[in-house]
Amino acid sequence: MQDVILWTGAGQIGMAIARLVGYGKKIIVGDKNIENAKFTAKMKSY
Ligand SMILES: NC(=O)c1ccc[n+]([C@@H]2O[C@H](COP(=O)([O-])OP(=O)(O)OC[C@H]3O[C@@H](n4cnc5c(N)ncnc54)[C@H](O)[C@@H]3O)[C@@H](O)[C@H]2O)c1
Is 31 touching ligand 1 by the criterion CB < 6 Å? Predict the structure, then answer.
């Protein structure tokens, strides 16, 4: 089963955390600003 992260607040700190812990995981992004959520949803983790 693949780990899933629920992530709210797709800003600078949220992106940094997702890059560190999100590798190989499915991430569900929530943000009150849909454009921020769309932008970060396209980001690749390292
Ligand atoms: N970036 C830093 O170096 C730093 C350092 C110390 C403290 N902080 C604090 O940490 C917090 C986050 O910083 P950041 O740089 O990631 O901010 P940011 O503005 O880059 O990102 C915040 C994101 O959270 C979203 N958001 C705000 N309220 C929300 C809500 N109720 N529901 C869903 N999404 C919501 C915003 O739309 C935005 O996309 C801030 O309070 C900031 O003051 C940041």
Answer: yes
